[in-house]
Design brief:
There is one protein chain. By secondary structure, the protein is mostly helical. Helix 2 runs antiparallel to helix 8.
């Protein structure tokens, strides 16, 4: 039995409900950690503020989908469940807005890890912005051409594909830069607390979290399914949205707990400075 658009949308809603639960628990956990360590952490840190916006977008999207689930099943049933409505179109746009905010978190982290070098983040920022502009164009064309279609008209698919590929390019660039910098720093700072006393699996997990690799994998699956125009894209889209919220929250938790490479680098830098200062006095 082939996967229909209506069934894919229903499965997608169920998957999003589970992931939103995970997202909400992690977000509340991050707030508790930040509150308990409020004397050590800056609660107006850009990453924390952006992460709050991402979670707000995730919550709004789930609320729209939940309202549609209740309204559609109560009136028309499964048939026509995937038909587009104005609220659902807003939810579709919200996927790209959430992606953009998530990209900004990763770009900011990349900027910090690379010692605040502006040249490192110029191209990733432009591709993220370009992707959001393409999706805004798709939304306008869909409203003009066929606002109730469960799938975008074929004429706008290339523009929509560009709108998803450009942010994925941002993630590829940022992920590669962060992974390289963390790897390079771990070689140069063998005594850093980020790398002492940990197994290879735990180091790999920390690397995935810091680099946003989970974020990139979710987006890659989504882009491939969108390019193939497969009905499962409705499942991947809503799952990717919640992962856009989960990945930055994991980064916030690590930063709040002081186990980020950024903290390790600052610690090692302070140690090196004290040693240098000590040798100068002699």
């Amino acid at each position: 039995m082939p996967l229909s658009g209506d069934l894919a949308s229903l499965i997608g809603f169920a998957c999003e409900a589970v992931l939103y639960g995970v997202n909400a628990i992690l977000f509340l956990t991050s707030l508790v950690i930040l509150y308990k360590r409020r004397h050590k952490n800056n609660i107006v840190h850009p990453v924390i503020l952006l992460n709050g916006l991402v979670f707000l977008c995730c919550t709004t999207h789930f609320a729209i989908e939940f309202n549609h689930f209740v309204a559609a099943l109560g009136s028309t049933g499964v048939d026509g469940y995937a038909n587009e409505t104005m609220p659902l179109l807003g939810a579709d746009i919200l996927v790209s807005v959430t992606d953009f905010f998530g990209d900004m978190i990763l770009i900011y982290r990349c900027w910090m890890i690379w010692a605040r070098m502006p040249i490192v983040i110029i191209l990733p920022f432009l591709t993220a912005l370009g992707g959001l502009a393409c999706i805004a164009g798709v939304a306008h064309l869909v409203l003009t051409m066929n606002p109730t279609s469960p799938a975008p008209p074929p004429a706008v698919v290339p523009l929509g594909l560009a709108g998803y590929i450009l942010p994925m390019c941002t993630n590829i660039m940022v992920t590669s830069l962060i992974v390289f910098k963390i790897w390079h720093s771990s070689r140069g700072l063998p005594g850093a607390p980020e790398f002492v006393g940990r197994g290879a699996a735990r180091q790999a997990m920390g690397l995935m979290i810091e680099s946003g690799l989970l974020y990139l994998l979710a987006q890659l699956v989504y882009v491939v399914l969108f390019a193939l125009e497969h009905p499962a894209v409705d499942i991947a889209a809503v799952m990717a949205l919640q992962i856009y919220g989960i990945a930055p929250t994991l980064i916030v938790i690590r930063v709040a707990l002081g186990i980020s490479p950024e903290n390790a680098s600052e610690t090692m830098g302070s140690t090196a400075h004290r040693r240098t200062g000590g040798s100068d006095r002699h």
